[in-house]
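User: I'm preparing a small set of examples for a lab meeting where we compare how different chains pack in three dimensions. I only have the primary sequence for this one, and I'd like the structure in token form so I can line it up with the others. Please keep the answer compact; I'll paste it straight into my notes.
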Amino acid sequence: MTDKIVPCLWFDGDAEAATAFYVSLLSDSRVTAVNRSPVDTPSGQADSVLTVQFVLAGRNYLALNGGPAFRFTEAVSLIVMTEDQAETDRLWTALTADGGQESDCGWLKDRWGLSWQITPRRLMDLVTDPDPARAKAAMQAMMTMQKIDIAALDAAVAKL
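Assistant: Understood. Below is the structure token output for the 160-residue chain.
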């Protein structure tokens, strides 16, 4: 890894499965190394997977099989800026499958408990619109949604 800062995601033995799933979702993503522990650790035996290095949408990450001591919280999330409703729907469906949980305003948790924000670029354009009325209408519409509906956002703004 050449990046100076690399986020580390802590898993309870599922780092390899989680990273394989994550890299299947986004282009410019791949697992770059699976590293086995040379010794027994509190989270696993010698030769078990300790870390997985991976690239997700062009950014380096490290997944650590650290054991059950720490869990993900909403205090940290991964934001995916989607290009259209089809990409928003595809990622939302994949990430909430098999035990993931939907939340409000484009937030969700995947089956490992990692929080994601599936955020259409159109949403960001609308809520940062220089016209305060348009930004307000878009924000109010977004506040009623779980998965973001781009057509509904555009409709809310068009009513002005």
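A couple of notes for your slides: The mean pLDDT is 97. The two ends are 49 Å apart (CA to CA).

User: Perfect, thanks.
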